[in-house]
Known about the structure:
- The chain is globular and about 40 Å long.
- The protein is mainly β.
- Strands 2, 4, 5, 6, 9, 10 and 11 form a seven-stranded mixed β-sheet that branches. A four-stranded antiparallel β-sheet has the order 1-3-8-7, with no helix packed on it.
- It has strands at about 1-5, 10, 15-25, 35-40, 45-50, 55-60, 65-70, 75-80, 90-100, 100-105, 110-115.
Amino acid sequence: VQLLESGGGLVQPGGSLRLSCAASGFTFSNYAMSWYRQAPGKERELVAVINGAGGSTHYEDSVKGRFTISRDNAKNTVSLQMNSLSPEDTAVYYCKTRIWTGDYWGQGTQVTVSS
């Protein structure tokens, strides 16, 4: 199983970024995918999750209405569109899945929101 995130970077407050995670090594469409984040000095937290078919999503309260998780099962990718970013969104963002052999994480991508 391999998860590879991309799309992080530096953005000004109020700006947008789109993160992507390319998955391989398992039957992608069978499993939910999640985005987590970890800010300096804080615990890793769930940001958003999407089910295998893509029809059900869940968001952490602070990102509702600003972030959108989506997936393309034909391309084995999951994305996180982040709008109206604030400095509080600064963190390393991780893609994660749980399959029958356990939990798998990507290496993370840094998102920094600063003027």
